[in-house]
Amino acid sequence: MTDATPLVRFSQVRKSYGAIEAVRGIDLDIDRGEFVAIMGPSGCGKTTTLRMLAGLETPTDGTITIDGRVTNSLPAHERDTPLVWQSLALFPFLNVAQNVEFGLKMRDVPRAERQAKVALWLERLGLEGFEHRRIDQLSGGQKQRVALARSLITEPEMLLLDEPLSALDAHLVVRMQGVLTRLQKELGITFVYVTHSQSEAFAMSDRVVIMGHGEIVQIGRPREIFRAPRNRFVAEFVGHNNILSGTVTQGEIDVDGVRLPLAGVSDGPAEIVVAADRMEIYGSPPSSPALKAAFVSEEFAGAGVICYFEGPGDLELRAQVPEARLAELAPEPGKPFWLAWAADSPHVLTHREGRT
Amino acid sequence: MARKPSIYPYFWRAPLLIWQGLFFVGPLILMVAMSFWLVRNYRMEPDFVLANWERMLTRDYFWSAYQVTFLRASIAAALASLFAFPASYALAFLVSETTRRWAIFFLIVPFFTSYLVRVYAWQVLLAESGPVNAVIGFVGLGPFTMLNSGFGAMVGYLTLIMPLVVILQTFSLAAIDRNLIEAAWNLGASPRRTLVRVIVPAAKVGLILGAVFAFILSFGDFVSPFYLGGSKPPTLSILIIDTTKSGQQWPRAAVVAVMMILTLFTVAFAAVGAAYRRNA
Amino acid sequence: MRLPILFFRLYLLALFCFVFAPIVTSTVFSFNSDRFPTMPLGHFTTQWYQTAFARPEVWEAFRNSVTVALSAATLSTALGFATAYTDFRFGFRFKSAYLALALLPPTIPLVIMGLAMLAWLGQLGLSGSITGIIIAHTVMAAPFAMAICRMRLQQMDASLEAAAWNLGASPWRAMRVVVVPFCLPAVISAFCLTAAVSFDEFIVAWFVSGLNKTVPVMILEILQGNVDPQINAIGTVVFVTSITLVVAAQLLLLGKTAR
Questions:
Q1: Cα distance between residue A73 and residue A55, in whole Å
Q2: Which of A41, A209, C5, C230 is the most buried (most CB within 10 A)?
Q3: How far is C161 from chain B (nearest CA, A)?
Q4: Minimum mean pLDDT among A235-249, C31-45, C65-79, C152-166: which range?
């Protein structure tokens, strides 16, 4: 086993439940020390993938290799792939210390060593003094940290996380993200993080795996996926994107009669993606070509405001602007605006050479 | 866990199959078989004769017992459903959640508490010179003979089934979506129409289930008709006991038992079918 | 709306009076000096308890009842728990038939169970024995234990057991350290309730008991004679026992669900 072999390798892994195919032949390598987020809408097979890695499901086909060893049918309890559950699954009849030491107890680690490790991990996660608390006396964030300590106490090579932050309040989510990334860096172990939340996946992971309908649609660094979605599915799922289709001629794309700049693309029909934050809104027709669209509604999102518009031919358009700019524009439903992008912005999704 | 077939699931699944197979299905099958056995010189011999069936099913006393039992069980189920409903309605809609929980609590207690002793207590209560007649006598009526009559038996049946019927009805009524009822009011339905058109149909399954259990329990009960009903006319359960306890006529008792089971299954299936049939 | 509310209050009161009248009556008359149940009452006495419990056969019956109740409760709770867990955890073919088998016994009239058991235990050479009563009571009580355990399992996060495997517990060990502790209140509750069911059951016991009478069977046989206030005394003891068991069973469950 050299460091060249990945920690985990899925090859052609398939999982079906009767007629339903949850995972349809995926290939995926996960390296040591990597923070990988598997992301997708519900029912895309991401949780099944994670559960197969933990040995809670057996693949129908293909092989899963951990550390160079095929583990398809290795029972869950003989693996060292602790999972942080969506429900946390803390044992309600055990106190904090008993929950945390559970994995060591199952490995018949002597009492003194267990106690030392429990103390260490509680300290590491800021839970000193909570040893004897009952689980139902803890706050959401504390429970989360107990679950982490319980999973990490056996010092595994990788930690699996199944939407662990979905039950937390928004402000706690950001704090826990910090806790998780710090832990991952400090421990240098692999985190495989399943989520449907783009912000969680992009904020924490080194690589994002986008799944849809049981297949891997795209793998890449968060920025790559964000700026260059491979297809319409990813473009729609990730971020606030405008998806436009039209015909390219001489460095311009014709969208419903409006010719907008699109450099470096040869002639032919194309589908392009423009991120909402790259869209510019004009209150009056600009000198350069722009799409005329009626304002629909706005939505406050983090740094700015996302404005929704209805363009020509029922085209849904969105643009992200700073809050101050929104005040300047003074939008009202139905009020016309003009939208356009900077010349280098669009990402081409599909493109066919030649004329239609 | 596909590596080696684990015995784990079977360890948990098997006990019921073994135990109920050996001590529930086995006895019932034997009983059915026994109804075809031959009794000769007061001894049973495994055989396949229809004599017991012929003997029981051609006798008037069997059919009159069957009639009495079926009629009484039906009346008991109807009365229990009727008497229980206002109480269940109150528990479901007019009291707090806590009160309802405690009411159910105190209804479960008697359901599991010495039916026999409770029936004996009714013997005391309903006696010619007992407390109930004393109260009635106080207003210048009676004394009435309440024991050894259909009335006495009915009191016994209701003692047995009332708590269960109220519990089942309350659960099904409490489970009705309040919005449904408020919507009915909002649309101008009178309370009475709401009850008939909304509440009763919505709680239908529980109401029917309550009546079915009332029927099943009364149909098979032996104590009330015997000790409060004076065992005349005999019911099917009394018939079984008389036939079993006096002499070795178990096969004939088995015939009665099989007839009872068939009846109960028919009633239960018909009722469950009615309960889950979609409203027209 | 005031008047109907009052009506419903009184109606509920009347219902509970009807349900509890026999229990109260039996208790009151067990301390009443008159031999026959007449009004007004005589004076307070404990003589019926003294007479009843001076008889060795009463003690014998109680011993039998306790033996039967404890054994049947243990067996039926174990059986009920295994069945409830099977239902909770596994899916398999013919599962609905399996569950029907598990839940059917209480719908069979006791008289019929008695007859069938009498014949069957006779074939096995167990008729007239305490073992026979234990077997029969286990069959009849197991569905109640199953129902209670199943309700408790319903409250268990399904990933709790998987979490134990994930942390290195084999299925057997996960059962011991996670499922059983979680279900413990329900298991004790089921034990109490099935003990009450067995302690009160008399028809099947009467069919199969022979000379080894349990308390309710003894009551049944005394009843066939004449009115005897000793029954009130013994009956009150039976009431107290089974009410205690049923109340304990319910409190154990309520305490856990409320949390």
A1: 7
A2: A209
A3: 14
A4: C31-45
Please list every residue in chain B whose beta carbon sits closer than 8 Å to the beta carbon of residue C112: 31, 220, 240, 257, 260-261
A-to-B residue pairs, Cβ atoms closer than 8 angstroms: 10
Q: Where are the alpha helices (DSSP H) in chain B?
A: 8-20, 26-34, 51-57, 60-89, 97-111, 115-125, 131-138, 150-174, 178-186, 191-194, 200-202, 204-220, 223, 236-245, 250-276
Q: What is the ipTM of this complex?
A: 0.89
- Give residue B178's pLDDT: 82
Instruction: Specify the pLDDT at position C257.
Output: 52
Higher pLDDT, C2 or C233: C233
CB contact under 8 A, C164 and A102: yes
B256: exposed, middle or buried (Cβ count in 10 Å: 0-12, 13-18, 19+)? buried
pLDDT at B1 exceeding the cut of 50: no
| A82, A85, A103 member nearest C159 (Cβ) | A85
Assigned CATH class of B49-276: mainly alpha
Q: Name the region of A115 (left: φ>0; alpha: ψ -120 to 50; beta: rest).
A: alpha
Helix, strand or coil, per DSSP, at residue C66 = helix
In the predicted structure, residue A241 carries a pLDDT above the cut 90: no
**pLDDT digits 0-9 by tens, A244-259:** 888 888 888 888 888 8
Mean pLDDT of chain A: 88
Question: Which residues lie below 8 Å from residue A205, measured CB to CB, with a gap of 6+?
Answer: A35, A36, A37, A191, A193, A222
**Residue A159 Cα, gap to closest chain C Cα (Å):** 11
> How far is the alpha carbon of C256 from chain A, nearest alpha carbon, in Å?
11
Domain boundaries along the sequence of chain B: 49-276
Percent of chain A with pLDDT over 90: 49
What's the predicted TM-score (pTM) here?
A: 0.88
* Residue C182 touches partner A, C-beta closer than 8 Å: yes
Q: Per-residue pLDDT tens for A297-335?
A: 888 876 788 889 988 878 888 888 888 888 888 888 888
CA distance B135 to chain C (A): 9
Distance between CA atoms of residues B44 and B46, nearest Å: 7
Q: Which residues of C touch B121 (CB under 8 A)?
A: 21-23, 25-26, 29, 232, 235
Chains touching B (at least 3 CB pairs under 8 A) are A, C
| List of chain A residues whose C-beta atoms are within 8 Å of the C-beta of residue B2 | 58, 72-73
Taking contacts as CB-CB distances below 8 angstroms, the residues of chain B near A73 are 1-3
Residue C23 forms contact with B (CB below 8 Å): yes
- pLDDT tens digits, one per residue of B102-140: 999 999 999 888 888 899 889 888 888 788 888 888 887
